[in-house]
Design a protein that fits this description.
The protein has four helices and three strands. It has 108 residues and is mainly α. Helix 1 (12-20) packs across helix 2.
Length: 108
């Protein structure tokens, strides 16, 4: 995963996975959340999603949630993950502000 922690830039997939996990979710629910929130623009395959989940767990940004004894393993964002998501939101807001100033505030 090509997330730049130093610069604060996350991939769009990483950012959406973190956002989806402010409430506990299993893999399929994460895929549905992302597809719903992006109106189908982003649609993750299982391999992409589970690769991202493994990477984010390794970074300590998400963790397993609950007893996970059933087939559906659930995940939840960690405090560190929330800090990363909040930094990305600030970065995106700054980018939007600068772009709006340059474009002249025209509405898309």
């Amino acid at each position: 995963m090509r997330d730049n922690v130093k610069g604060g830039a996350l991939t769009e997939v990483t950012f959406f996975v973190l956002l989806s996990l402010y409430q506990p979710k299993h893999g399929y629910a994460i895929m549905q959340f992302i597809e719903d929130k992006t109106a189908g623009r982003l649609s993750l395959g299982a391999g992409t999603l589970y690769g991202a989940l493994n990477s984010l767990q390794g970074k300590g940004w998400i963790a397993s949630y609950g007893n996970n004894e059933g087939r559906k393993k659930e995940y939840l964002i960690t405090q560190q993950g929330k800090e990363i998501a909040e930094k990305e939101l600030c970065r995106l807001n700054e980018l939007l502000h600068i772009a709006t100033e340059i474009v002249g505030g025209s509405k898309l």
